Amino acid sequence: MSVLKDAGHLFRFVGIFVVLFLIFLVVRGFVVPKTFGEYGHYRAAAIGEIAANPLHFAGHQACAECHADIVATKAAGAHAHVNCEACHGPLEGHVENPAAVVPVLPNTATLCVRCHEASAARPKGFPQVVAAEHANGVACETCHNPHSPAIGSGSNAGGAQ
């Protein structure tokens, strides 16, 4: 009995731990969404919530209706299969009211490196640069037309088109 004589503080600690764990389980039951874990470590209801959001993209054809010259330049260049809204953002509002909603002219010094920053994961034939060495923070449209980026493929200051 002498072994358990001084173990009362350990029993109190274990009791407090058990009570806190039970409180945690109760709070977790109220906080964690009911559909969490239905499809793995994911909240299943998020799929329906995201699908219910309205679409705000206009699509490539809507851009081509008014900007045929830029579409022609783009079609002849390396970005022929890149959708306009991949760089300029959702443009449904611009299509509905061109004067009120002006498309975003992206900061190419940060936008272009999303796809073109050197990475071993990209295919070897894909144009890649180490941005810090290649341009030193200078905007890409200083030397490249973003719609047809090969040097010598048209106007180099193509960012504002």
Written overview of the protein:
By secondary structure, the protein is mainly α. It folds into two domains: 8-52, no CATH class; 60-142, no CATH class. Helices cover 43% and strands 0% of the residues. The protein is built from eight helices and no strands. Helix 3 (60-66) crosses helix 4 (68-75). The N and C termini lie far apart (88 Å).
Q: What shape does the CA trace take?
A: elongated
Sketch the major β-sheet.
none
| Classification by helices and strands | mainly alpha
Q: Provide the low-confidence segments as ranges.
A: 156-161
User: Count of DSSP E strands?
Assistant: 0
Number of domains: 2
Quote the average pLDDT: 84
Topology summary:
Elements (H helix, E strand, L loop, with lengths): L7 H24 L13 H8 L7 H7 L1 H8 L8 H5 L3 H5 L11 H9 L14 H4 L27
Helix pairs in contact: 3-4
